[in-house]
Specification:
The complex is a heterodimer of chains A (225) and B (355). Chain A has 225 residues and is an all-alpha fold. Chain A has a single domain, classed as Orthogonal Bundle (MetI-like fold). Chain A has eleven helices and no strands. Chain B is α+β, with helices and mostly antiparallel strands. Chain B has two domains: 219 residues, P-loop containing nucleotide triphosphate hydrolases (Rossmann fold, 3-Layer(aba) Sandwich), CATH 3.40.50.300; 89 residues, RNA polymerase II/Efflux pump adaptor protein, barrel-sandwich hybrid domain (OB fold (Dihydrolipoamide Acetyltransferase, E2P)), CATH 2.40.50.100. In chain B, the strands form four sheets. In chain B, strands 7-8-9-3-10-11 form a six-stranded mixed beta sheet, sandwiched between helices. At the A-B interface, helix 6 and helix 7 of A face strand 7 of B.
């Protein structure tokens, strides 16, 4: 077997994590992106900047603060404990929360760009044809922003798969819980299991290539009339 | 009646209007760019929210103080300058977009009727609206607005983005609209020929204010309004097809001031047609012209005289109950000694038939 059970477990965990995170991000990222694309509020710049922070911050910095915040004495930790959820660090749920923050800009920004490209005129036309704001959003804005959703989904998923620093800080290295592929590769290398590291890394390379290939093939924005 | 009062102040522009408009026929909002006609239309649609405003359409309040009916709750149709078809929907789905969103009992305009009226039969099964010509796209967008059975149709320079050929292609459809459907239209334009062709009522706007508002000819025949200074100044005559001269291939049109002979019109007797008589095509004689090639010579009384630049003057002429404009040189006025109240002969060099 080229990929042993622990490797397959890591791959499955990674897919589960990335899938969950992408789904959550599409749900909360869409309204945030819509707001950022349409608002004239003074909050647009600061909120946009906060969401973009993970792009520039070393993942360890984000991971460190999340670890502190979600720990027993941190504000998030206090909240989760009072809700009877325990503390999040070193759990799958903790990884999801951290990854959502870490991957947020990679989902929100393409969505925001796509929404900004939806012409105001199309929305006004829909309103003049009796569509309420919500109706307009679903019947006009979403379909017109479809390429942005494809990009956002792929980038959000791929970035979550590729994260390492945040996972190590928040999740540690618990098999089946928090040991994702990137951490597993690191473990193999530490243990001098280069063959194993190779197979897993090669799988990642192939996966990433296929994802990007799919993105560039399916996204029609590059070949519009 | 439609009552519209709006106060809107931008740093560069202010709109300040108080209007009473007829709830029948086509009302043109006419003025140069920057006069506020589009802003006024957008305020009426609710696309612009004038903080100070009152809007009543046939006793229904759309805006008043704190009340502001959102755009999608107003029973109106809006046709933008560019057709604004939804690119992700087929032609048919575009047409159905508004239709699906009105209540069944509000539906007064049928799909078949509109498809016929706007000549869309061969286009309706096109999947991608981006393949349509400019004129076709605009016809689809007008049809789409009509299918919401609007109680008021707002059109914002629907022809100005089109080339001359597409304009000519689409104008008959707009005229058909006028006669086929009983929907009041507010039509924004800066082209006098469109206004002359389509409008029944005209609101003249300049710098965000109403300069004048009245029946089409009442406005077109006034010397003190900016319309009289345009190159294509002139009046519109609503006339009845009275008789045909088969031999010379001419048609006689009767109107309250007399009659005009024009090139043969292929219309049945008693049909109403619109003819445009430009001020520059009307010359004046003080005695009945003899041996003139001009067919249409009408007895007229000079109702007003106003200078038009250093070399020319505009005259308004009463021909029976009808008014004409004439533009002649200042020298001719002085040589002929023309004064207000004088009885003269108006020689109409050409008549442009519009429908």
């Amino acid at each position: 077997m080229l990929l042993d059970d622990s490797n397959l477990q890591a791959i499955w965990l990674t897919i589960r994590l990335a899938g969950t995170v992408t789904l959550i991000l599409l749900l909360i990222g869409t309204p945030i992106a819509w707001w950022l694309a349409r608002t004239r509020s003074g909050w647009k710049a600061p909120i946009g900047a906060v969401i973009a922070l993970p792009i520039v911050l070393p993942p360890t910095v984000l991971g460190f603060y999340l670890l502190v915040a979600m720990g027993t004495h941190g504000p998030l930790g206090q909240l989760t404990q009072s809700l009877g959820l325990g503390v999040l660090p070193f759990t799958f749920a903790g990884l999801v929360v951290a990854s959502v923050l870490y991957s947020m800009p990679f989902v929100v920004q393409p969505l925001q760009n796509a929404f900004e490209a939806v012409p105001e005129r199309a929305l006004e036309t829909a309103a003049s044809l009796r569509a309420s704001a919500l109706d307009t959003f679903f019947s006009v804005a979403l379909p017109l922003a479809k390429p942005g959703f494809l990009t956002a989904t792929v980038l959000g998923f791929a970035h979550t798969v590729g994260e390492f620093g945040v996972v190590l800080m928040i999740g540690g290295n618990i098999p089946g819980q928090t040991r994702v592929v990137s951490v597993q590769i690191y473990d193999h290398v530490e243990a001098m299991e280069y063959a194993q590291a190779h197979w897993l890394s090669a799988t990642m390379v192939a996966f990433s290539f296929l994802v990007l290939l799919a993105l560039y093939t399916l996204n029609p924005s590059g070949r519009r009339k | 009646m439609i009552r519209a009062r709006f106060d809107l102040a931008y740093p560069e522009f202010a709109l300040n209007v108080d209007l009473l408009l007829p709830e029948r026929g086509v009302t043109a909002l006419f003025g140069p760019s920057g006069s506020g006609k589009t802003s006024l239309l957008r305020c009426i649609a609710g696309l612009e929210h004038a903080p100070e405003g009152l809007l009543k359409v046939n006793d229904e309040v759309w805006q008043d103080g704190a009340n502001f009916l959102p755009v999608h709750r107003r029973p109106l149709g809006y046709v933008f300058q560019e057709a604004s078809l939804f690119p992700h929907l087929s032609v048919r789905r575009n047409l159905e977009y508004g239709l699906k969103r009105i209540r069944k009992n509000e539906c007064k305009v049928q799909m078949d009727q509109v498809v016929e009226l706007m000549g869309l039969r061969h286009l309706i099964d096109r999947r991608d609206p981006s393949g349509l010509s400019g004129g076709e796209r605009q016809r689809v967008s007008i049809a789409r607005a009509l299918l919401t059975s609007p109680r008021l149709l707002l059109m914002d320079e629907p022809l100005s983005a089109l080339d001359t050929a597409s304009k000519q292609e689409i104008l008959p459809y707009l005229e058909g609209l006028h006669s086929e459907l009983d929907i009041p239209v507010l039509y924004v334009s800066h082209a006098l020929d469109e206004v002359a062709r389509l409008a029944d009522h005209v609101v003249l706007l300049a710098k965000g204010r109403v300069v004048a508002s009245g029946a089409l000819n009442e406005i077109l025949s006034r010397l003190d309004l900016p319309t009289a200074h345009l190159d294509d100044a002139g009046v519109v005559i609503e006339a009845r097809v009275a008789a045909h001269d088969e031999n010379y291939h001419l048609t006689r049109l009767d109107f309250p001031g007399g009659n005009l002979w024009v090139g043969k019109v292929e219309r049945a007797a008693d049909t109403l047609v619109r003819a445009r008589v430009m001020a520059r095509d009307v010359s004046i004689a003080t005695v009945a012209p003899q041996g003139s090639s001009i067919t249409n010579i009408l007895g007229a009384r000079i109702a007003g005289i106003q200078d038009e630049g250093p070399d020319r003057v505009n005259l308004s002429l009463a021909v029976g109950d009808h008014m004409l404009l004439s533009r002649i040189t200042r020298r001719s006025r002085d040589h002929l000694g023309l004064t207000v109240g004088m009885e003269v002969y108006a020689q109409v060099k050409s008549v442009a038939l519009m429908a």
